[in-house]
Specification:
The complex is a heterodimer of chains A (about 200) and B (about 280).
Chain A: H1 8-27, E1 29-31, E2 38-40, H2 41-53, H3 55-74, H4 79-102, H5 118-148, H6 152-184
Antiparallel strand pairs in A: 1-2
Helix pairs in contact in A: 1-2, 1-3, 2-3, 2-4, 2-6, 3-4, 4-5, 5-6
Chain B: H1 14-17, H2 20-36, H3 40-56, H4 65-85, H5 89-94, E1 99-104, E2 107-110, H6 111-137, H7 140-149, H8 154-183, H9 194-225, H10 244-265
Helix pairs in contact in B: 2-6, 2-7, 2-10, 3-6, 4-6, 7-8, 8-9
Classes of the chains: A mainly alpha (about 200), B mainly alpha (about 280).
Chain lengths: ~200, ~280
């Protein structure tokens, strides 16, 4: 029953990734010019971890991280948005993995192999935009309506704000960190034999 | 500078003596029933019951008082936003219209809207005491074993206990890096412009992420060396056998959840309607 996708490293990445998510959610958010909308750096990290460790890790880091954040800082879990966080990690992980398989082994988004060029950056951002739109503009408001019966125009306005803020955050911070991280990795086949 | 966070403290009370599994189940059942139901009578009864349990637990007020203010502010903003965006939502749901006071334009206060917003507040409030209680009265090392006991894979349960274990460490690391960066002149306060602040934030995040990834390598190597994940089951540092009281509480919570759902959907609608 040992599946490769759920290795010891995935378990640890979920645990520590979620801890990082919680810490950044508490300390690392910068208020933006739009009232009541923060630049939440933790979603940039969630996107990066979902690419590095796969969809299952993305899903669980989002779910666990957001639940723990809500519990220890407000004592009141807001389930619709918790689920949306998980969906965001899941979709980023799934799309990033799919691209890898389609183009042969690890060819497009290869942050961990030290290659994250223009193509990778564009793809990473397309993926994060799709995931952000699906989770904050679809999943979160729809669940708000289903669970809490909140008015549709209110939750969709909140959804639009959250989608915009998160896309911008991941585009700037997520991309910057992914580039910097990929530079610390050794490229595959970077060694040449001396004649 | 650190914001205060809720955490467990060791008190001897009937609630603290319950097993972690019991508290987790009761919390989950209450949350689910509270999410689904829109029946005012059920929600009120649940709120009163959970407040009584909270009183029994003897958790001192100052341990969670700071959170209450946050919750109140959040609830107030939410209520205001609902009214601003949809002043007629209550009328739509309950199907009648009793106007109390006309404010201006399309905004007027109706008893349906007041009742609807009261229900949202109630739904919001019902989840707070069980969630706080679960967090304040369950020992963190019992979290994981409880989750595993109710059927969550032990690897996921273990990941959650890693999260609880590493939050203070990662937090310390964040504070260290941030102070070091500030000492070198990176301004993180609101005096700086937004773009500059983002760039400075990236300067803190990068070392933090690198340190975290390294920590993941180390911890997973250590776990692998100890044979983690080889077997289908594992034992836990902290897990208590269920007592008779636990049985009663679990049965009670299940009964309440079922009763709430039955009463809510008895007349075929999710909303309790006092207006017809």
């Amino acid at each position: 029953m040992q599946s490769k996708s759920f290795s010891v490293k995935t378990v640890v990445a979920i645990g520590i990734g979620a801890a990082l998510f919680v810490v950044l959610a508490r300390f690392g958010s910068i208020p933006s010019p739009i009232p009541n909308t923060n630049i939440q750096t933790n979603y940039a990290i969630l996107a990066l971890f979902a690419v590095l460790y796969g969809p299952l890790a993305g899903l669980l880091i989002g779910l666990i991280g957001h639940t723990v954040t809500d519990l220890i800082s407000y004592g009141n879990p807001w389930f619709s948005w918790i689920i949306a966080s998980g969906v965001f990690g899941l979709i980023v992980g799934l799309l990033a993995r799919k691209l890898r398989i389609q183009k042969g082994q690890y060819s497009l988004i290869r942050i961990q192999d030290g290659e994250f060029g223009l193509k990778g950056i564009v793809l990473f951002n397309i993926i994060q935009i799709i995931a952000n739109v699906l989770s904050w503009l679809v999943v979160a408001p729809v669940l708000d309506i289903l669970i809490y019966a909140e008015p549709a125009n209110k939750v969709f306005t909140q959804g639009v704000l959250a989608t915009g803020a998160n896309i911008a955050t991941v585009a700037v911070l997520g991309t910057l960190i992914a580039i910097a991280y990929s530079k610390t990795r050794t490229k595959q086949g970077s060694l040449t034999r001396e004649e | 500078m650190a914001p205060r966070l809720l955490s467990y403290s060791n008190i001897d009370s009937p609630v603290h003596r319950l097993s972690g599994v019991t508290k987790l189940l009761a919390f989950l059942l209450f949350s689910i029933a509270g999410m689904i139901s829109y029946d005012t009578r059920c929600l009120l009864a649940m709120l009163i019951l959970s407040l009584v349990v909270f009183y029994v637990s003897k958790v001192p007020f100052k341990q969670y008082s700071f959170v209450l203010y946050l919750i109140l502010i959040f609830a107030a903003i939410n209520q205001l936003a609902i009214f601003l965006f949809a002043p007629e939502q209550g009328v739509q749901i309950y199907g009648t219209r009793h106007e109390l006071l006309h404010v201006f334009g399309r905004y007027s206060i109706t008893s349906e809207q007041l009742f609807y917003q009261f229900n949202i507040l109630l739904k919001f409030a019902v989840i707070v005491p069980p969630a706080l209680l679960f967090l304040l009265a369950t020992e963190p090392s019992e979290f994981a074993s409880s989750l595993n006991r109710i059927g969550v894979s032990y690897k996921i349960a273990y990941a959650i206990s890693i999260t609880m274990r590493y939050i203070p460490d990662v937090q310390q690391e964040y504070v260290n890096i941030s102070i070091a960066a500030q000492a070198r002149g990176l301004d993180m306060s609101r005096k700086e412009k937004l773009g500059r602040r983002l760039k400075n934030m990236a300067g803190i995040l990068l070392p933090l992420v690198l340190a975290t990834l390294e920590r993941i390598e180390k911890v997973s190597a250590a776990l692998e060396l100890r044979g983690f994940g080889r077997k289908r089951k594992r034992t836990w540092y902290k897990s208590r056998p269920l007592t008779k009281t636990d049985g009663f509480v679990i049965a009670g919570a299940v009964l309440i959840a079922v009763a709430v759902l039955v009463i809510t959907f008895w007349d075929g609608a999710r909303f309790y309607n006092p207006f017809v």
